[in-house]
Structure prediction request, 268 residues.
Amino acid sequence: MVHLGFIGIGHMGSMLIRKFIETGVAAPGDIIASNRTREKAELLARNLGIKLGDNNREVAAQSDVIFLCVKPLDVMGVLRELRYELTPDKLLISVAGDFNLEKIASISRARATRVIPSIGSESLKGVSLVVYGGNTTDSDRALILRLFRAIGHPIEVEEKDLDILIVLTSSGPAYISAVMRELVLAATRKGVDADLAERLVKETLKGTSELLAKESFDDLIIRVATKGGSTEEGVKAIRKHAPAMFDELFVATKAKHDLVRKKVDAQE
Ligand SMILES: NC(=O)c1ccc[n+]([C@@H]2O[C@H](COP(=O)([O-])OP(=O)(O)OC[C@H]3O[C@@H](n4cnc5c(N)ncnc54)[C@H](OP(=O)(O)O)[C@@H]3O)[C@@H](O)[C@H]2O)c1
Prediction:
């Protein structure tokens, strides 16, 4: 039996706990958690039947695997607080962006891995980006895969690519929603009822995602945007304007990652 500890039970920490329990990959009695605002942890413990640590150190001491689910600028403080508990017999899984494995290893002696999950795991379909630390063992990897396969699709990637891949996965639901929202707003500017437009786009999104499970974007576009038709004109408009928008998205998100990393470095 593996004891799982969670430090930070905000959006991501609480989702992971809930989904690991719901899928049966972890039992409530094997999970212990702590959170800066204790009332939040108390509520989750009551609702899910997990154990509550008196503090982060107790959680780390009682766990074999410690999930670090705090924001990047809070990671340094927690790692320093846990310097005596994070020993080589523990596996640390950090879900934080902008705090790399080298930096973790400079403070903690635990075996470490980064996993960047997605809120899509609410529906057991989230992609989790996994970067194994050099000191993780085969059984660590098997455990990580077992946990994250239960709630979606874990995919091993290189740490240097994370900023870009996060755009596609963990931030993806926000971007897809933002783009679809713009489509709805454009329809409402043409006089269509906003609720109707949103409902139609959401249903279309569901159907499209099922089709895309079996075919490529390009194949689907060719099937819908028949030559000489109106959809072909619409696709041309997207192809004209979207590259600049998405290039700007990557520039803006990289600038934010660089800023956070600068702040993290300044904490040393
Ligand atoms: N949300 C996503 O979709 C997503 C996706 C991938 C990765 N992540 C990563 O997941 C991490 C958490 O994100 P989130 O969206 O869950 O943020 P969040 O909702 O703000 O949760 C962070 C939690 O950490 C707690 N916390 C902060 N400092 C702490 C400390 N010293 N000890 C114990 N608990 C502490 C906070 O407690 P309080 O209750 O006091 O605020 C809060 O509950 C981030 O690093 C983010 O990069 C998030």
